[in-house]
Amino acid sequence: MDRLIKLIEQKKNPSVIGLDPVIDYLPTFLKEKHGSLADAVLEFNLNLIDAVSDVVAAVKPQLAYYELLGSRGYAVYEKTAAYAKEKGLYVIADAKRGDIGSTAAAYAESYIGENGSADAVTANGYLGSDGVRPFIEAAVKNDKDLFVLVKTSNPSSGELQDLPLQSGEAVFEKMALLIEKWAEGTKGEYGYLRAGAVVGATYPAQLADFRKAHESVFLLVPGYGFQGGGAEGVKGGFDENGRGAVVNSSRAVMLAYRKEGDERKYAEAARNEAIRMRDEITSVLKP
User: Fold this and answer.
1) Is the distance from CB of 248 to CB of 224 less than 8 angstroms?
2) Assigned domain for 287 exists
3) Alpha carbon distance 258, 181 (integer Å)
4) For residue 201, what pLDDT is reported?
């Protein structure tokens, strides 16, 4: 996680902007301008990146919305990731991939392999060690990272993740312990493992408990903004030095233009929201 942490400290901003191009989010004039939705998404993304690249440390494309547009959509993802890297941003491919053996290795190679477009990928660890170790191996080999789903931000996450085990731990707590075990020996300069955890801002008490219990696991914190998470809630995900987490916002940034009332100024509105988010989060952090 060293590169991500250095970017966060350089920008003085522990936030990541989600690039989740739901077609309904696109300004009408962009959809009318282009002959294909893929081209409209690409222009939208590139302009958003230009607007926020000096403000945020990272972007997080959600793969589902690119795959929805077929092969042209996937090409837009790759062009988006490449452009974000040109602008000095860290790219998290939000793919939530999970499988076993050679299939997991293929997913890992696709996103964080030598020719992968991302600096990190989200992975589903609920298949066990043989579903995660190929991602860790690819991360070590290629100086990249991953974030394993632990306590997700959606309302129904507790149906499985909060269930108590015989040992007394909840399922998500056991997953956190497994991440530490699987990624043992991969700590970087700042003391964090290459395998981080996804823990939602919508569960602030559990987020704070996680931070205290797992000091070497860096956090990707979704759920800020539209899903209800706020600065006070995400504060518990950071350590005493203001490190240890990066907070994601997608809809609040991408749709900021709707609040400001001029869809042609969508990039400017996104920048304003990214700055507002930065200032709100950093105001509650130490030091």
Assistant:
1) yes
2) no
3) 45
4) 85
Residue at 51 is within a domain: yes
Assess if residue 228 is contained within a domain: yes
Domain count, the chain: 1
Residue with tokens 């979704």: 222
Residue type (1 letter), 46? L
DSSP string, 68-121: TTHHHHHHHHHHHHHHHHHTT-EEEEEEEE---HHHHHHHHHHHHSTT-S-SEE
Q: Is residue 56 part of a domain?
A: yes
Angle between helices 171-182 and 204-213 (to 10 degrees): 30
> Can you give the pLDDT at residue 193?
98
CA-wise closest residue to 217 among 121, 111, 146? 146
85 is catalytic: no
Give yes or no for a contact between 47 and 90, defined as CB atoms under 8 angstroms apart.
Answer: no
Distance CA 15, CA 282 (A): 10
**Which listed residue (6, 96, 187, 265) is catalytic?**
96
Summarised one tens digit per residue, pLDDT across range 139-198 is 999 999 999 999 988 889 889 998 999 999 999 999 999 999 999 999 999 999 999 999
State if pTM tops 0.70.
yes
Question: For residues 98 and 148, which has the higher predicted lDDT (pLDDT)?
Answer: 148
Dihedral over Cα of 194, 195, 200, 205: its sign? negative
Task: Using alpha carbons, select from 183, 182, 202 the residue that is nearest to residue 192.
Answer: 183
Query: Do you know the residue count of the chain?
Result: 287
Range of the domain at 108: 2-282
